Amino acid sequence: MHEMSLAEGVRGIVEDAARAHGGRRISAVVLEIGELAAVEVEALTFCLEVVLRGSVAEGARIDIEATPGTGWCMQCAATVPVAALYDACPQCGSYQVQPTGGTEMRVKAVELE
Ligand SMILES: [Zn+2]
């Protein structure tokens, strides 16, 4: 389950942020998750609860913002919306679509107490 390693990555980032601000506690973490990032939000939230226990971000609110998937269609020579990885282009039906957006998860912001 790769959500667990993602959650551990998030913990590292928020701990660094807390340290950079004099060891203050984290009250909220804002995550941006791309629709093409193949992240199970429910599983990730569960893993974060487990992983953040005992850390500076224990009990922190987790806000999740979904970013839409986009891809570059070679046939249309245009950026098109993509609902899932390896989907066909919604405009021309071609499968030559290169994912360009919404493929990543990142920590967008943390709120300090
Ligand atoms: Zn197309």
Automatic annotation (TrEMBL):
Keywords annotated in UniProt: Metal-binding, Nickel, Zinc
Pfam families with a match to the protein in the record: HypA
GO biological process terms, semicolon-separated: protein maturation
Metal-binding recorded as keyword: yes
Protein name: Hydrogenase maturation factor HypA
MF (Gene Ontology): nickel cation binding; zinc ion binding
Positions bound to Ni(2+): H2
Organism the protein comes from: Pseudothauera lacus
Record's function text: Involved in the maturation of [NiFe] hydrogenases. Required for nickel insertion into the metal center of the hydrogenase.
Similarity section: Belongs to the HypA/HybF family.
Binding site for Zn(2+): C73, C76, C89, C92
Gene3D superfamilies cross-referenced by the UniProt entry: 3.30.2320.80
InterPro entries: Hydgase_Ni_incorp_HypA/HybF_CS, HypA/HybF
Lineage: Bacteria, Pseudomonadati, Pseudomonadota, Betaproteobacteria, Rhodocyclales
